[in-house]
TrEMBL record:
<feature type="transmembrane region" description="Helical">
    <location>
        <begin position="39"/>
        <end position="55"/>
    </location>
</feature>
<feature type="transmembrane region" description="Helical">
    <location>
        <begin position="141"/>
        <end position="159"/>
    </location>
</feature>
<keyword id="KW-0029">Amino-acid transport</keyword>
<protein>
    <submittedName>
        <fullName>Branched-chain amino acid ABC transporter permease</fullName>
    </submittedName>
</protein>
<comment type="similarity">
    <text>Belongs to the binding-protein-dependent transport system permease family. LivHM subfamily.</text>
</comment>
<feature type="transmembrane region" description="Helical">
    <location>
        <begin position="61"/>
        <end position="79"/>
    </location>
</feature>
<keyword id="KW-1133">Transmembrane helix</keyword>
<feature type="transmembrane region" description="Helical">
    <location>
        <begin position="99"/>
        <end position="121"/>
    </location>
</feature>
<feature type="transmembrane region" description="Helical">
    <location>
        <begin position="6"/>
        <end position="27"/>
    </location>
</feature>
<dbReference type="Pfam" id="PF02653">
    <property type="entry name" value="BPD_transp_2"/>
</dbReference>
<keyword id="KW-1003">Cell membrane</keyword>
<feature type="transmembrane region" description="Helical">
    <location>
        <begin position="188"/>
        <end position="207"/>
    </location>
</feature>
<dbReference type="InterPro" id="IPR052157">
    <property type="entry name" value="BCAA_transport_permease"/>
</dbReference>
<keyword id="KW-0813">Transport</keyword>
<keyword id="KW-0472">Membrane</keyword>
<keyword id="KW-0812">Transmembrane</keyword>
<dbReference type="InterPro" id="IPR001851">
    <property type="entry name" value="ABC_transp_permease"/>
</dbReference>
């Protein structure tokens, strides 16, 4: 039971990171390989606010998430929208965007190395035990999980209960059909990319409350997010949330029962299995 609960707590944070990439790839059709650097930048921002300003990271979300929205919106409008306009096919756009964001990954990683070096960082926030169902868990992990659930539910309600959310889902399903009902696909794509950045930044803030991080870890987390997106079905926010919980439980099982050093190998193994036998994702086709 302890392993299961720990895995679910970890999966909740993974869900936010993957939901950000789901919006960017599933709606804007941009495979953003620099998404992990948004996560890392948010970790450092939360660390700075907490250590230098004494600001609770949960309150820091109100600062960092909007900054993530603005920064990713600027990246889309300044760098990626010209690629979208010149692309003659979806395949060309995917290749161009992968190359562009791959370059951004190293640019942002280099800037963070310049600012913070290669050291590992953490801070003490709610680092006390919390007893639940006969097990003891770190209160910061429990708090991060419930904050992630609240953010994910807010995103779900936005997508399924508002006109803009409906437009976002329509573009995710079929951009050409969305144009026929007077949806500005370009504007919605830019909005979804920026919103994805804000969601990823929120995940970074929550992750920083219990995870030791450094400037180089973004690539690992973007790969985990990609695995979750593919597992859940591209563009399906509900599938991404469920897939994140599955990945969190699997990693915890491997770390607890086999060897912590094999968690990344198990993650990539799962990725290969999904690509071979279920490339549309475990929940592919479930978008609504």
């Amino acid at each position: 039971m302890t392993i299961l609960v720990t895995g679910i707590l970890l999966g909740g944070t993974y869900a936010l990171i993957a939901l950000g990439l789901t919006l960017q790839y599933g709606v804007a059709r941009i495979m953003n390989l620099s998404n992990g650097e948004t996560l890392v930048a948010a970790c450092f921002a939360a660390w700075l606010l907490f250590t230098a300003g004494g600001i609770n990271p949960l309150w820091g979300l109100l600062i960092i998430a909007p900054l993530g929205f603005i920064a990713n919106g600027a990246i889309y409008l300044g760098l990626l929208r010209p690629l979208v306009r010149r692309a003659s096919s979806q395949g060309m756009l995917e290749v161009d965007s992968i190359l562009a964001t791959f370059g951004l990954l190293f640019l942002f990683q280099g800037l963070m190395h310049l600012a913070f070096g290669g050291a590992y960082f953490n801070y003490q926030f709610l680092a006390v035990p919390f007893d639940f169902l006969g097990g003891s868990y770190a209160l910061n992990r429990v708090t991060a999980f419930f904050a992630a659930v609240i953010i994910a539910l807010a995103l779900y309600l936005f997508l399924y209960r508002t006109r803009i959310g409906t437009a976002v889902r329509a573009v995710a399903v079929d951009p050409d059909a969305a144009r026929l009902v007077a949806i500005d696909v370009g504007r919605i794509a830019a909005f979804a990319f920026a919103l994805g950045g804000a969601i990823t930044a929120s995940g970074g803030v929550l992750l920083s409350t219990f995870y030791t991080f450094n400037a180089s870890m973004g690539a690992v987390f973007v790969m985990k997010a990609l695995i979750i997106v593919i597992m859940g079905g591209v563009g399906d926010v509900r599938g991404a949330a469920i897939a994140a919980l599955i990945l969190g439980v699997m990693e915890t099982l491997v770390a607890s029962l086999i060897d912590p050093g094999l968690t990344l190998a198990a993650t990539y193994g799962l990725f290969i299995v999904i690509l071979l036998f279920r490339p549309q994702g475990l929940f592919g086709g479930a978008k609504g």
